[in-house]
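ligand=adenosine-5'-triphosphate
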Amino acid sequence: PPLPAAQVRSTFLDFFRDKHGHLLVPSSPVRPRGDPSLLFVNAGMNQFKPIFLGTADPRSEMASYHRVVNSQKCVRAGGKHNDLEDVGRDGYHHTFFEMLGNWSFGDYFKEEACQMAWTLLTEHYGIPANRLYVSYFGGDAALGLLADQETRDIWLDLGVPPARVLPFGLKDNFWEMGDTGPCGPCTEIHYDHVGGRDARTLVNMDSPDVVEIWNLVFIQYNREVDQSLRLLPRFSVDTGMGLERLTGVLQGRRSNYDTDLFTPLLHAIQQVRAGPYAGRTGTADEGQVDLAYRVVADHIRTLSVCIADVSVQSAGTCVMRILRRAVRFCIEVLKAPQGALASLVPTVTYMLGDVYPELSTEADRVSIMDIINENEAHFLSSLRQGSRLLQRTLSRRDYRDRLFPASVAWSLHRDLGFPLDLVDLMLAERGVQVDRQELDRLIAENQTEGSYCVSSRLMLDVLSLAALQRVGVPHTDDSLKYAYRLEDGR
Ligand code: ATP
Ligand code: MG
Ligand code: MG
Ligand code: MG
């Protein structure tokens, strides 16, 4: 029988702790402490940044870390790492996921790291070696960086056939924390879900058949201010493997949603809507029920974790946006009643509470549900009021030759939180145009609130992509990207 996810997780932690002397460090909250450069924790290494940077207080516990293992709550829904676009469309990018990682701070390096990873995957988890591909840094002549032959040789010595040891460039196999700071080549392990073929061209192709499962980064340089690379006095290892993907591999599922990390949630969603989950993938149609199941299952995990750690208000617009997206999918696509979203929370806390104590108590569960319900009610009522105000204004006058009053558009936005883009689109649907000049003036006048930027971002919270297309927004992916660009530029 396939290994349950809880055992996939504990096997990893036990392997490094009990067999290889690593200290088990708890996950940090998803909101980074004292790091304004990050919206959310997006990798296990985030909490260890001071060690890599050499800024850890020598009296702190952290300063004594040599070998560490952990399972980190990660969110990639904003900022540099934003996977929101892929969620539900593919089966292996989530906004919230658990990253299993092991670290060496000036202790072991490449050889031991690869050896342990290979043993864990092939012997303890029993993954057939002939399904695995590994990549290494192939060098970059322009930047004067040599290929990481050392890592290549390590894999060959471990018995990986040369045809499955593949060189890639900077983008995939050289990891940098930022413009300056610790960095180095990495090696990634990929799994072929099909097998019995030569799939090397599919590695790093974003194919659902060959997925990246584990990234091992070898931190050996420091990127200096003048952009040169200086060898660090001590080398470190930083690895990360997605629990959901690994579980997919071990349970023989190409979609993570078909593993026991998600099936209880899909069942819970089925309780609140009429039709079942059919597991169809490969669609970009936001009206598709299966896609909505996946999005809602993904988003409710993210919401529960984010609210438990930070509360929705201080987590900011990004979490609010996920909440509204989830509400919209629940109500518009799944035809679930109001309150359905919050009713999924106990399933999440039941599944994650054992591992993450902040999700374990009755009080945690109740407060997460309350916050979701309040925000859902608020959002739905704004939507209703907004539509009514718009309707009323439109019915009072004939707008065939006239421009829609900017003051009403502005009030929809400011007083009811309606995205301005949405106002534009709703008007366009009715063949009406807003008084652009006057509206621009109002926007400029209120620029300090930064509200126009927010409105573009929120546009997709409330509108289905089909609605965007109906009124002629050129391409849905572009508009999504546009929204994300604004978000990143904040
Ligand atoms: P991908 O190329 O698939 O987007 P990545 O290269 O961005 O992954 P890393 O930053 O190397 O991922 O993170 C380490 C590991 O975390 C990955 O190998 C993968 O197993 C997992 N992971 C990354 N992003 C996600 C996500 N959005 N959802 C689930 N797991 C993820
Ligand atoms: Mg990625
Ligand atoms: Mg990758
Ligand atoms: Mg990677």
